[in-house]
Here is the input.
Amino acid sequence: SSCSSSSSSAFLLPSSSFLLRCNAKTKVILGTMLRESRTGSLGAVGGAFDLEAIALAAASTVLKFPLIVQYSGLPALSNRELYPYTCTISASFVNQVTAIFDLLDHFYKLTRQIQWRQPGLITTATPYGIPIGQEFVNQAGKRDFFVTSYQQILGTTNDNNNLKVRDITQQVLELKNTKSRVFISMMQTADAQTLLAVAQKSGMFAPDYVWICSDGCAQNSMYLNLTLLPNQTVSVPEYRNALPGLIGVTYPIDLEFDRYQLLLKTYIDTYNGSILTGIYPAPLYDAYFAMASAIDILIERNMTRNVTNIVDAVRNVTFRGMTGWVSFDENCSRFPVYNIVNVWRGFKCPECLGGHPLDVFANVGTWNYTTGLDFTSPIRFFDGTTNIPDLNLHQSFDYLELHHWPRLYQPHPFL
Here is the structure.
């Protein structure tokens, strides 16, 4: 796994660019970039997390050093005025939010149940959760959706030795009290696991509820004890029990791509299939390949390899990578492509994301910025079937009252 090493140093790669480890401390990241910019390196690839990505992008601007961010969807990274020399291999999550609304709209059109247009939202108060949550609320107003409740949690901190879990019971109960039946979770895996446990105790993982997860929590490690990774893979029953039917929107992995198959085979052989690969190696490969391809273009054309030319060359790079077709817009941000994924009951899933024996998310469709949603398999819901659940609220009644005064009870209108 690309985040498994405890070292905070940087990989220096021989092709006139360098790669920063995803768990490096910010001061090490910035110091390495400063040193490399002065010693002839031509570009940087790194930034697996949002805070690192912003720090790298700011340093890229100051040092006039080209950067490709491997895994961050922060919209700010596409701001050419702030970060003119930063490119992103992961599309802005503005598009991911659009994909989630397209999902909701899809099921609303099939069922005409208003609950699909009145979701509850919960995010973390983090550099990931705050902007993606705000984008969801903004798009809801524009698309005639109503967010019944927007809850934020401080989030779980992980020092790789101990998960420090905060009590989020109140926020979960606030969601439940809205009477919504569809909930959107936008947070990283450790936080989503806390949510799974609390919401399950509150009875919110059941056949008449639907949960949709952003890329941060649509991860195959969702049912595992994160503190033991990467050395051990241990399933947590309370996570597994809540997961069936979970729908996610995440970055794609091209299972048929020959280099990904080689990576997967090598990884499984090395760890005897007992450790998850995670999603990070695929965009990391594509980010580095994009930088190398841009430099190759300049060499072939005998052009000066300065920062402006390198960034312009990256914009013109197109290739089939581990994360599907890669191409960039005028802001040097990747054109968005996402997979729609789904946890199938029983966790028996030969078609699951990544093709690893321990994967639990099945690819059920795709979304891109030109054609929208395209389903390749039916979604399975919490009960394990492909039947879309009835989300209408029904008025409770007293049996004796019904016995003495028989009459037809209709579904109570959603308030």
Remarks:
- Residues 281-300 form the longest helix (20 residues).
- The radius of gyration is 23 Å.
- Residues 237 and 287 are 36 Å apart (CA to CA).
- Confidence is low (pLDDT under 50) at residues 1-25, 158-162, 395-415.
